[in-house]
Model the fold of this input.
Amino acid sequence: MKKKILVIDDDLNIRDYLVSLFNDNGYEAYIAGDVKEGIKEAKKIKPDLITLDIEMPGEWGPRFYRQLSQDSELKNIPVIVISGLSGHQYAVVNAVASLTKPFDREELLKIVKETLN
Amino acid sequence: MTKQLLLIDGDKNQAGALKTYIERLQYEVVIAATFEEVKHQLGFLSWDIILADPFLSDDVAACLDLAKKKNTIVQIIILAQKDKLDIAMDIFESRVLHYLEIPVSSKTLDLALISAGKNISRNKKLERYSERLAELNGTKDLFNQLFEEVPCYISVQDKNLRITASNKKFKSHFGNQIGEPCFETYKHRTSQCNDCPVAATFQDGQSHSTEEIVTSKFGKQYNVLTQTAPIRNKKGEITQVMEMSTNITQIRQLQDHLVSLGLMLGSMSHGVKGMLTALDGGIYQLETGLAKKDDERVFKASGQIKTMADKIKKMVLEILYYAKSRELQYQEVEVATLAENIISIVKPKAENNAVRLDILIDKNLGKIDVDLKWMEASLVNLLENAVDACTSDSDKKDHFITFRAFKNTNNQICFTIIDNGMGMDTETKNKMFTLFFTSKGSQGTGLGLFIAHRVIKYHGGTIEVESEKGKGSQFYIYLPLNKPDNGKVVEFPTINH
Done:
């Protein structure tokens, strides 16, 4: 069964990119455009991994992470931060990795693969 | 110092005796026994005392007068036979110090010489005083010139903060406001400023400095760096305070520009990173689409790459616009032409995004003075924002923008842009013209509306905005027909085409 990855990013183009990238590499990608939607989707699909943007309109990424950590069902899902901001990774303390946009595609796939195996 | 005495006497024996006697009194004595000698001695040397028989020759009297004119200190004592004394007195009157009768008694001569000596000392002293006074006047003039010409605003104020003196630069910018309170002249206020440095100097006698924003008599605002210094009387009491202000407006403007550029680079970096990632994504989609022969993916990818290239281009141009400065280049253009140019740029974008563009341009709007390139860019920016507001709104099925141009009762050209897009909350509305503020996340630079607002403002125009979240926005742009009178030199970004 394919591993499920939830992509949370406000930028439609980047979401499309990540979805294609993960789907092309044997994963099943899902999308959310903001924190609220992200929590809803996470509860619904129970992803194996989440990629999280930091700066999004409305609530920012770390708020999603806090809500995720407080949910007993979701708190163990690994999170990879993919953000244009550097220096805010501290707000997602237990992130598997923090990548800065524009990220290296192979590096991301390598981290995803290692995390999911 | 030994005094020098010229003895004019044709009687050699008498002259010799007098010389011997006078030399004993510590004078240096030279005898002139002929008119030629008199001329020579008076022509080349300066004497303290002249003891003269004016009847040596007819011209001696004139020579003595000339000598007195040339050297006011010289003391002249006349020697004459008893029968000629009256004649001598008629000739010289009070222009000489003494008249001595020949033969001269030693006592009379002594007294005359003492009197001459005293006069010489007094005259020399007076001469020194005059020289010092001239020097003092020169120094006063120099200080006055320094006070007047120093390239700062200088005012002197009394305890009530009333201006008692001011220099030329101060007067030319703030008027000759002697007797008026400083706060009225400098800031057009009715009461003393908080933290007044002049008041502080009156209190503690120390120099104080502050940075202030002052308004000239022409209504122009300057940033000034102000420093104060106490002026004390002989008792050491502070009677007045001098306030010196240096105009640092240009430095502050430069600093603001640099800060803005720094802020811009900081805020840009996030947007640039997002765009580059999306561009990476487009390239990935294109590569994999081609490999998989997935036409749909290739088509979508090429669209995405094009969009990203456009966004990057727009952003780079905005940065360049902001970074370069020039004055607005006014030209007279038909309002209808301006409106048509704008519509031709915006129409394709509106059509591509299924936004209906309704255009209402009144006829006979006439001409307007604008910087065409900048005004076009600004109005296009506002219209493109309206298109973005429509495409970002998923609640309504159909979207429209109404673009209208008309002349109002104040003889201003009005452009209205009304959309039924997503609208703005109050916070967004309040910040929308702030530098680097964007509600479009990584899609915006925060420069477009800032520049548009500045362009309209510098044309002497105004923008009014009404908006309601979820319902749409209305922009009202009012522009005067002619270039504003204030002739404000505006540093403005350059458009490179």
Notes: Residues 487-497 of chain B have pLDDT under 50 and may be disordered. The longest helix of chain B spans residues 106-149. Chain B has four domains: 3-127, 150-247, 254-323, 331-480.
